[in-house]
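Hallway conversation turned thread

IA: we were arguing at lunch whether anyone had actually written out Bifunctional protein PutA end to end. Turns out nobody had. So, for the record, here is the sequence (1196 residues) and right after it the C-alpha cells. Reply here if something looks off.
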Amino acid sequence: MFQFLPQHTSPLRRAVTAAYRRDEAQSVADLFAGLHIPPEQRDAADGLAHTLREKSRQSAAETPALVLADACPPVSPEGRALMELVEALPRTPDETTRQELLRDKLSAGDWDKILRHTEEEPVSWLQKLAGHRETEEAVPTDAESRSKKAVQSVNMLTRHFTAAATIEEAAKKFKKREKAGYAFSFALPLNEAASEAEAQAHYQIYTDAVHTIGALTRRTGVYTAHNLSLKLSAICPFFRHLCAQQVHYYLLPKLKTLFLLAKEYQISICLEAEESTRLELSLSLVEALAAETVLAGYHGIGITLQAYQKRAPAVIELLADCARKNQTRLMVRLVKGGYWSQEIQAAQSAGLNGYPVYTRKAHTDLSYLACAQLLLAAEDALYPQFATHNPDTVAAIHEMAQERELEFQCLHGLGETLFDHVAGEKQLSRRCRIYLPVGEAAQWSDYTARRLCDRFTLNLADTLPETEETADGIRSPRNPLDAAVSTQGKTHPALPLPRYLYGQTRLNAIGIDFSDDLVLNRLQELMNLASEDGFQAAPVTVMDTPRHEARFVQNPADANDAIGAVSPIREAAVHNVLSAAKIVEPHWAAVPVQQRADALCRFADTLENCLPEMLNLIIRESGKTARAALDELRLAVDYCRYYAAEAERLCADRAPVGTLVCISPWHSPLAVFVGQIAAALAAGNTVIAKPALQTTLTAYRAVNILHSCGIPKAALQLLTGGADIGAALVQDPRIGGVLFSGSTATAKLINHSLGQRSDLPVFVAESGGQNVMIADSSTDIHRLCRDVLHSAFDSAGQHSTALRLLCVQDDIADQVIAKLRAAADNLIIGNPADAAVEVGPIIDQESHDNISAYIEQAKTTALHVHQSPLPHHLSHHAYIPPTIIELADLSHFQREVFGPVLHICRFHADQLKQTIAQINGKGYALNCGIHSRIRSRSDDISQNIEAGNIYINRRTTDTFPDVQPFGGHGLSGTGPKAGAGFYLQRLGHGRWRIPTLSREAFADAQALQAAEKMIRETGFDHDTRVKLSGLAGQAKIHNLRHAQSQLAHSSGEENTLTWRSPKHIWLHGGTQESAFAALIQIAAAGMQAVVGYDHPLAGWHTRLNGILRVSSHPEQQTFVSHLVSLELPPPQIKMDLAARKGAIVRIIDAREGLDLLRLFEEVSYCADTAVAGCLPELIAATFSPMQDTLANGGNV
C-alpha cells in the first residue's frame, strides 16, 4: 500500500546513508584516527601557511567593498542592515518601497562608530562606501542623497563579488588572470525551478552556456579548460528525495545531452552542492552518467562535495568505486559547505535524531583534511578540486599532495589574493580555478549577502592565534587535529541535539528524515504491516452502552480501501456516560499532579513508538499527506509534554472545573484531539471526548493508548457519533465546560446552548479563520511563492492554518501570480500513500460539492480563476486541484473556503493601511503572514492587523506549544491559546499567574491618574480608598498591556508572545466599590468600560471620559468584545449576546473580583531571522575551536 522509495542494494550506498546523522564525537574520532599527517609534513604546512598568510596581507588591495565588509561585520546592527540591503534592494522594483527600505536600514546602528574603526578621515560613511575616498563634496544630509549613496554602495558590493553580465564579458575582463594560470568555473544566477516552464528555460540557458564556454576554449582538455557550474534543482521542478525515481527519469536524458555537448568541447560540468536532503539524488545521477557508454573516455563529470556533511568520507569511497567500475575518472570539488545555518535550523525544527553537519568549524576543517587525504589517495579514479580560502588548509593539502595532480578553487572577490601566490609556475605550480558568477548584478543579491558572511568567517579565522596554551599543552587553534583533541568531538553546547531543543526535561517530538532511505524503507515496512488488519472503533465508556450498527470507513483517496468500521453510540446513552464522569470527578482531581503529568509523558513516548501505525491511520482516514500526518503526531506529542510540565508548575494548588467535553475536528484528527484531552486531564478534569465523525478511528486508537499509559477509563471516555451526540453533551447542565475546535457557525451554536444555563461554564473555542499573507515588493519572490504554495495547498488546504488570501503589492503582482500559477500546476496531486504527494483528496463528498460550487460561482465575479490540471487517473469526485482566484477587490472575499483555494488581491504601496482595514473588517483574527524586508513596515502591519498568530518571512502553518502557540480572537476564537501559559489556567479555578516577561507591561498612566482622582471624590471611607488605591498601584505591575514574553525557538527564529488590550469591555452588575475596583484595572490596561444607565458607575461617565461610557443597551453594541460580570448574569443577557452577529462575546466571571489577565488577547509572533539563509550570530557563537562560550554572551 505505502510505497516510498525503491531500496538500494549497494553496500557503499547504504554506508553513505548510514552516516547521514552519525554521532558527532564518533564521526570526529574516525576522522582523527584516519588522518595521517607526519610531523615533518605538518611543520612544513605550518610554515607555508604563515608565508601565504603574510604574502596575502601584503598584496591585498583594500578595495572599498572589502573595507566596508570588514567595517560592518554581520553580527553588528550596521552589518545586518547592510546584508539586508544587499539582499533586498536590487530586487525591489518601485521607488516608494526602495526609499522606505533604505530609511529602515539606514536607521540601524552607529555609522559614526564604523568610521572610527576604519582609522580614516571621518568623511561621510556613505561617500566612503561608494568609493569616494577623497572628496571635497559636501556631506549629504538630505534623505535623497543618503539613499543615493547607499544604492551606490550596494551596487559596489554586488559588483565586487560578481564577474560580469555575460560569460564572454567575464572571460575578457579576467584575461590577465587566465594568462597567470587560472581557469574559470562560470556560474549562472538560476534559482530552483518552481515549474516545468522555468526548468525548461533554465536548461536552455545552461545549454547556451556550454556552447559559449566551449567556444572560449581551445579544446585543451577538461582539467585546464574553463567549465560550467550547474545547479540541478534549477532544471528540475521536483528535485526532492521523495521524487527520486521521477527525478532520475526526468533529468538523466537532459544531463546526458549536456555532458555529451561538454565532451565535444572538452570542458567539464560540475554539479553544484545543495541542501543535504538532495545529496543522494545527485549521487544517483552521477553514478548513472558514469555508466553511460556514450560518455566513455570523458573525464569531465564533476560533483561538489561538502566536507561539513558527516557522509562526506563515505561519498568519496562510493564515487571512487563508481569511477573504477566504469573505467573513468570523476571530478570532485571539495568545499566546506554553504548551507550550514539552514541545515541546523531544519534538523531542529524537524526533531531529527542528529545533525547532518558538524556543529563546530574545527570539526568541518578536520573533515576537509580527511576528505582531502581520501581524494588524493584515489587519484586514479577521482580528480580532486579543493575549494577553500583558508591558507592553513591550502598549505596542508599542498604538503599532503606532494607531486599528485590537483586543483585549487576560490570564489571571485574572496580568494584571489591568496591564490595569486599559489597559481602558476612562479608560485606553487598548482592549478587554480576561480568561481565566476555571471549575470545581472541584481540576480546575485542573495549570493552577495552570503559572501559578506563568508568574509566575516574568514576574518574570524584570521584572528585565531598561532598557538594557545590549553590544559593539555600548547596547541594550535588553527590546526583541526589540535582542535579535535580539545573538543573531544563533542557537539557544540550552543547547539543542542534537535531532540533536546527545549532542554533536558522536555523532549522535542521525534521527526522523520524523509531523505534517509534506511528510515523510509523501515517506515514503509511498518506502515504496511499496520494495514494488514482492519481498524475498529466503538464508544469507550465505563459501562456498556447501546450503539448503532457499525459503519465502514473508507479512505477518501481510494474508495477501494476500507480502513475499518465505527460503531456510533446511541444518543440515549449520553446521560449515563456523564453520570459516570461526574462520579469520578473528585477521585481524578485528587490524583497528584505529578502522577497525571507522568501518565501524559508516558503517552507521548508511546505515541512516538506507535508512529508507523498512527501515520497509517491519519493518512488513510483524513487524507493528509505524509508530512502533514507526521506534523499531526508531533504536535500531539508536544502538547502532552508541554501540558505535563505546565501542570506541575501551575495546577498543584488549582481546583479543576469538573467534567469537560472535548469536541475536535476531522482536519486535526490527532493533534487537536489529544491537545484538548491532555490539557483537561493535566488540570485535573474528567473528560468526555467527542471526535469528528470522519476521523473516529484515529481518535479511538489514541484513547486506547492513553488508557494503557495510566489514564483511567472513568477519567477519559470516548463517544463515537455525529452532531447529535455533540449536541446532547453540550446541552447537559452537568458538564463544566466545552473545549471546541471547528467552524465559527458551530462555535456560535454551542455558545448559544451554554448561554441558556444559569451558571458560567467554561467555553474555549478555536474556530474559523480567513488567514491572510501580505507581501510587499521588497520580498524575495522565490521564497514568497514557496511559502504561499505550502501554506495554501498542503493537504488540499484542509486545515485551520491554511492560507486563504494573498495580498500582494501590485509592483510585483504580475510576476508573483504567474509564478504561483505555474508552480501550482507542478504540485503532485494524488493518494498520500505516496509520500511525495503534496495535495491529497477532499475529505468527503459534501465538502467536495461545496468547494466546487464556490469555485464555479467565483468564475462569474473574479478577475481570473486558474485551476491546475487534475491527473487523468484521479477521480473528479475525490480531488480538487489547486485553484487560484484573483479578486478585483476584497469585497468579494466573504467566507472561508476549506479547501485548495487561494485568493489573490493586489494593493498599491500607498494603500497598505486601507488594505489592513479591509482585512480587519472581515472579523476574523487567526493567522497573518508578512513577507517584507522592511522591519518598520512589518512592525506596522503586525501592530495593526487583527490576528492571533503572525508569521514574518516564513510559511504560516507551523504550530508548536510554547514556540508558536495556536489560537485567535474575534470570529476565530475565544482564547486562550492552545500551547501557551493561560490555557491550563482557564481549565481550573483561581486567579491566573502572569507569565515570565521579557518586557514589562506599560500601564495607561493617564487613565490610572484619572481613576485615582475619582477614588478621592467618590465619598468612600478611608479603608476603601486605601484598598482601591492599592489596587491601582498593583494594576501598574499586574498588567499585560504592551508586555512581551520570549518563547522557545529553533536557530533562525525569533518567537515572542504579546498581549493586546481589547477596546471595549461591558462591565455588568456589582456594587459601586466592586465596580470601581474593576474599572481601575480596566483603565490601567488601556481599555474602556461600557455600562448601562442603571449601573452604579453610570453617573461618573462625564468625569471619566475615555475610560467609561454609558449605553442604553450594551448587549447590542457590536464593539463590545468582553463582558466582565461582577454578579451572575441572567440567562437572557447571555442569550442576547449569543444571538448577536459577529464574534462570540467572552464572559469573564468576576464575582470574586476581576482577574485582569483574563481580558487580554494573546498574539504570537514568529520571525525568520536569517538573511539569505545565513545566521551570522550562530556562526560566530560556534566558531571557536577551543572554547564553548557564546559570542558576545548572546543566545542561540
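OS: looked through it. The CA atoms of residues 45 and 396 lie 5 Å apart.
IA: good, adding that to the notes. The first strand starts at residue 182 and ends at 187.
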